[in-house]
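Support request, please re-run this one:
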Amino acid sequence: MTLQLQSFMKSNIPLVEKHMDDLVKIITAPEILKESMLYSLNAGGKRVRPLFVLAVMDHFNVKDDAAYTVGAVIEMIHTYSLIHDDLPSMDNDDYRRGKLTNHKVFGEAFATLAGDALNTLAFGILARMQHVDAEKRLELINLLSIAAGAEGMVGGQILDIQGEEKQLTLEELEKVHINKTGAILRFSIEAGAILANATADERSILAEYAHHIGLCFQIQDDILDVVGTTEQLGKTAGKDVASDKSTYPALLTIDGANKKLQQHFRFAIEALDKLPSDSILLKEFAEYIVHRNK
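Re-run finished. Output below.
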């Protein structure tokens, strides 16, 4: 990781996390529910999605506190999906980000409701951003509902479940992850572009970048599931193999998965090169995605 990216992450992650904390703490709700929500929100993580919002805005030299609010909202959606993903009816995991999963601490009912609460709160926060133009708020709400719902993440989770114990083709596997993992990443990048008043052409280029970054993220996840340890990853390693899931290493071998990873990385950088001005930070973010070890 370069010093520039390291500095960017070090200065912005605490601000995103403070926004998340404040936005949950001010709501009127049972304390145990807020405790459960904050337990998973504050469990750590790379905060890649909110950082992408800020990195896009940095590219356009736009500063706006709304980016931290939108970033916090995205992390709420991501965290809700992890809480539900870890439930016994889903992946049945005991650890997430090196800590006991939410349902192991608060029970299945409270964990489920904490996820529900984070999901619904996120949309309310976007609607109440009075310092953002109503047209932008509406577009953000609409795009997030697509990215997080049946047409995006949730739809991808369904395809993932249906693909268990089946030999998916590469095209079928990519369809799963373009939705399950990629949709929220794409929204993060698009949200930054919306807040920064990017042109239609610039947004199209960034959407192309986001598509390939989303696939990079998932391919590296699949590789790490094979070569990483539970301690390193903060979650159960080897779970995909044990579940007999179709993954990039299972379809292509580790070597083939690494080649596919590098291919999508190259496509992401080529997309960025179409922008009128150089985007060093977004390129460094792409390198971070493909070289991360957890």
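The longest strand covers residues 95-96. The chain has a mean pLDDT of 93.
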